[in-house]
Write a structure and sequence with these properties.
Blueprint lengths: L1 E7 L2 E8 L6 H5 L4 E7 H6 L1 H12 L4 E4 L8 H13 L6 E7 L1 H13 L5 E6 L2 H7 L4 E6 L2 E8 L4 E4 L9 H17 L4 H19 L13 H6 L2 H21 L14 H13 L6 H18 L7 H11 L10 H9 L8 E9 L2 E8 H8 L1
Parallel strand pairs: 2-9, 3-4, 3-5, 5-6
Antiparallel strand pairs: 1-2, 7-8, 10-11
Bound molecules: nicotinamide-adenine-dinucleotide (NAD).
Length: 378
């Protein structure tokens, strides 16, 4: 349906296929003689699309491994398990390892494939919105180490990323929201009219969801209605997923190894990670989507304080995120966040690369100390 290339100079080094359904995956695998598939166990158990993929892979005699996926199991032990399984299954240098799952699966399987026998080819079938617009694009692989997120990893491109939006039909609402926050982030970085289109769609989804909850005590009470709500709008989601994938592919093509522009993809994440890690410390976890949404509001407020964005810009972002249930009240003030922000692994020489939105479609990178940021946002 749509093909998006990722370049290194003039060479195509990876590509993304956005397809209506899973049927063409088989054709994408045709040229690889020895395929090994690793699938998120949860996806295997809940997704009808995954069942279709499993049938096709079984028919082709592709060996398969199931993974239990969480930030805890996103570690070296699991990578060793994957490498051990590849070895036991006879995978050689000509293997293609196919990862089917969300960002945790693609990060881990990509990492395992990039070190197994000094690196074999791999490809992704992302099954979450976050992985479809972000994690499965750009070649960053990784695992958590010594309590730090994605501390070990490589940058190595998948052969291809096959995006089938129908996977989202079984994705829980909280995981959809994490992807929605990343999709909006992408359109704040680069916008060709998709930001407003995405807002319209997300507001529509919110209205449908609220209507489906009629009579229920709370919105979360009725989350079992979510699959019905999202399933009805997959065809509207598809062009937005493709547009977000295209933005990320463009950024990666211009700055594969994150020496400059690719940093922009961290918009909202310095504040967001600080919120997530404080909340975790206080045993009151905040999910990634809501943390990134709050992070983008902090970033927009900082832009205003620095005179980079017009007055009212932060309030617009705040209202937009709120109108699609992406905003929560921050349990933390800027002083609370400063310690965690200073530990940000992207800090260099005491300064952190803050990504500052000047307007929708226009962000800049500015190096600031955490003390400067705290003084401005107090
Ligand atoms: N490599 C990169 O460039 C990059 C970019 C952003 C994020 N990430 C990483 O991605 C990870 C987060 O990814 P994620 O949000 O996709 O998380 P995930 O892989 O944990 O998936 C979220 C949850 O949804 C379940 N799930 C996945 N697809 C499903 C489906 N279709 N139906 C039902 N359930 C499904 C999973 O089992 C899991 O419980 C983080 O570890 C983050 O570090 C990597």
């Amino acid at each position: 349906m749509e093909r998006i290339n990722i370049y290194e100079g003039d060479n195509v080094i990876s590509h993304i296929l956005v397809e209506d359904g899973i049927q063409s995956l088989e054709a994408s695998l045709e040229q690889y003689a020895h395929v090994y598939a690793v699938m998120d166990n949860n996806v295997a158990m809940t997704s009808a699309v995954a069942a279709e993929v499993a049938d096709m892979l079984n028919r082709r005699g592709v060996p398969g491994m199931l993974l239990d996926v969480s930030e805890k199991t996103k570690c070296m032990d699991t990578v060793m398990d994957i490498c051990g399984w590849l070895l036991d299954s006879g995978a050689d240098r000509d293997a293609l390892v196919l990862a089917i799952g969300g960002g945790i699966t693609s990060d881990m399987v990509g990492f395992a494939a990039s070190i197994y026998k000094r690196g074999v080819r791999f490809a992704y079938v992302p099954t979450t919105l976050l992985a479809q617009v972000d994690a499965a694009i750009g070649g960053k692989t990784g695992i958590n180490f010594e309590g730090y997120k994605n501390m070990l990893g490589t940058i190595r491109q998948p052969e291809f990323t096959y995006i089938c939006p129908q996977f989202l039909e079984s994705l829980p609402m909280e995981d959809f929201q994490a992807g929605a926050a990343e999709m909006l982030k992408t359109f704040i970085i680069e916008d060709n009219g998709e930001y407003e289109a995405a807002m319209t769609l997300l507001k529509g989804l919110t209205a449908d969801f609220i209507a489906s909850c009629e009579g229920a005590a709370t919105l979360s009470y009725n989350e079992e209605r979510w699959p019905e709500v999202i399933s009805a709008r997959i065809s509207e989601m598809t062009p937005l997923i493709a547009a977000a994938a295209k933005v990320k592919a463009g950024v990666v093509s211009r700055d594969q190894f994150e020496n400059g522009e690719r940093r922009k993809l961290n918009l909202g994440h310095t504040f967001g990670h600080a919120i997530e890690s404080l909340a975790h410390k206080h045993h009151n976890d905040i999910d990634h989507g809501h943390a990134v949404a709050l992070g983008m509001v902090y970033a927009a407020k900082l832009s205003e304080k620095l005179g980079l964005a017009e007055e009212g810009f932060a309030a617009k972002i705040e209202n937009d995120l709120d109108s699609c249930l992406l905003l929560i009240i921050s349990p933390y003030g800027i002083n609370d966040l400063s310690g965690a922000m200073a530990k940000d692994k992207k800090a260099e020489d005491g300064k952190v690369h803050f990504i500052l939105p000047c307007a929708v479609g226009n962000v800049i990178v500015r190096d600031l100390t955490v003390e400067e940021v705290v003084a401005l946002l107090k």
